[in-house]
Amino acid sequence: MIKACSANEALDQLLRTDVAIVLIDVCMPDLDGFELAAMIREHPRFQKTAIIFVSAIQVTDLDLVRGYAAGAVDYVPVPIIPELWLPVSDANEDATAPPAAPRRPTRPTHLEEARSCRILVVDDDPIVATGTVAMLEDLGHVATEVPSGDAALRLLGSDTVIDLVITDHAMPGMTGTELAARIRRSWPDLPIVIASGYAELPGDGDLALPRLSKPYRQQDLAALVARLVRDRSVRRAAAGAAAQ
Predict the structure, then answer these.
(1) pTM for this prediction
(2) pLDDT digit string (tens) for 41-51?
(3) How crowded is residue 209: how many other Cβ atoms within 10 Å of its Cβ?
(4) I need a surface site. Which of 37, 123, 169, 181 has the fewest CB within 10 A?
């Protein structure tokens, strides 16, 4: 057993020692567990090393997806129950066998309500963006991520077809509500969702934007996407009937 008190110390130990399993705390002061896992996975020597996250806080579906995207094979709650480790130390197991496939969050049962959509995810945090994209793709959608409002407007102004935009609010250069206002002027029929941990957002009142409160679960994401797609279809059908 080798102990490290920080992400930097863990990286130093890994470069000097061969290990079979890495246990990582999710919340650490310098680099969090997700960032450390991603850095470990980037090294060719550790691409098949089993990584297990431990956490004393409640883990959301978004956290699970972020962890699996970073290379984790499992999560273990703190305090740790010793019996959870028994299968790992089973002497009859083949030590060279690849780690078991990670358990994924339970797929919501109402996914059939929404057809497959082309969704643009706007977030300057690459870990959050990757997690959201992973959840959307798991739901059967096609998701594209960009890191800023300017990048989102450039993509929307190209030939790329987008059915829905999910944007973070607190981003440098252009906030999510500012991006939404500019999208509304050019693409008034395009549904926009603001994803934020803030209870109230400046400038949001006039736009009346749907909200996703961070951290959100895959079930919340699935239900909101289904509702927005359904509402847009109803509006288009009504407009078509009125034009006849």
Answers:
(1) 0.56
(2) 777 777 778 88
(3) 20
(4) 181
